[in-house]
Structures are given as structure tokens and as C-alpha cells.
Amino acid sequence: MSGHAPDSTESAVLILAVSQLLVPLLNGLLSRRQSKHETVVDQMPLLGERTTRQLQHAANVVAKDSQPDR
């Protein structure tokens, strides 16, 4: 049986190997979640813009209707 040094070295190598595998995996999951979130955020201004346009159109229609006929 060998002493403590080889065990701790093996443990360090194992931890390093696992972290090398886990880090890209976690980064991939996080970036995927972030891109989903960004997609939702990107759509929000479009919804707001559409609503503003509809309100503006409705205001124009009301303004036309309320003008006295000449």
C-alpha cells in the first residue's frame, strides 16, 4: 500500500477531471437558460410597441369620429 501522497494526488486529478467535464456542462445549461430569457425579453418591447400602435390607431379613429362634419 502506498502512503497518503499518491491518494491525494489521485483525488486532485479526479477532482480536476470532473471539474473539466462539469464546467462546460454547467456553462452550456446556463447559457441556454440565459438565451431563452433573452428571447422572452426581446419579445416584450415588440408587444409593447404593438399595443402602443393599436392605442394610437384607436385614438385616431376616435378623433376622426368626433370631428364635426363640414
Keywords, separated by commas or semicolons:
70 residues; mainly alpha; rod-shaped
SSE layout and pairing:
Layout (H helix, E strand, L loop, with lengths): L3 H63 L4
Keywords: Membrane, Transmembrane, Transmembrane helix
Provide structural commentary:
With 70 residues, the chain is mostly helical. 90% of the residues lie in helices and 0% in strands. It has one helix spanning 4-66. The termini are far apart. The model has no long low-confidence stretch (mean pLDDT 79). Keywords: Membrane, Transmembrane, Transmembrane helix. The chain crosses the membrane at residues 12-30.
Q: How many extended strands? A: 0
Low-pLDDT residue intervals, each spanning 5 or more residues: none
- The structure class reads mainly alpha
Share of helical residues: over 70%
Gross morphology is rod-shaped
* String of helices and strands: H
Strand content: under 5%
**N- and C-termini, Cα separation:** 107 Å
What can be said about the biggest beta sheet? none
Number of helices: 1
Please compute the radius of gyration using only Cα atoms.
Answer: 31 Å
* Rounded mean pLDDT score: 79
